[in-house]
Amino acid sequence: MWERLVGEAKHACATDPALRAIMTEAILGKQDFYAALSGLLARKLCDSTLPLSMWETLFAEAKVGCPAVDAAAQEDLVAVVARDPATEDILTPFLCYKGFHALQCHRVGHWLWSQGRRTAA
């Protein structure tokens, strides 16, 4: 999955060089799928009261506490591509589909809740 996502991001950069910055920030500058996903979600969720570093820490803790969140997210992405006839690649839902993003945030929130961290959840 990670290799395919990186390949699609590189292809997007080659097709439209204006996309290089976002592809590098979101995917090409990351070490693996979960790092890219958690970074993307953390940037979407952060604000002045809930900073980026807090979200990055929560996502990292979730992966350590429940390693299955990584594989589940990848399976969700495969399911989106398989079931949505309008989806031709994995790059678009990874970067843009709010439902996919919400499901991944729910997984992390559920893990936090199950750990007794209800306020953080």
Automatic annotation (TrEMBL):
Gene Ontology molecular function: serine O-acetyltransferase activity
InterPro entries listed in its UniProt record: Ser_AcTrfase_N, Ser_AcTrfase_N_sf, Trimer_LpxA-like_sf
Pfam families: SATase_N
GO biological process: cysteine biosynthetic process from serine
Coiled-coil region list: none
GO cellular component, one term: cytoplasm
Residues of the Serine acetyltransferase N-terminal domain: 1-105
SMART domains listed in its UniProt record: SATase_N
Protein known as: Serine acetyltransferase
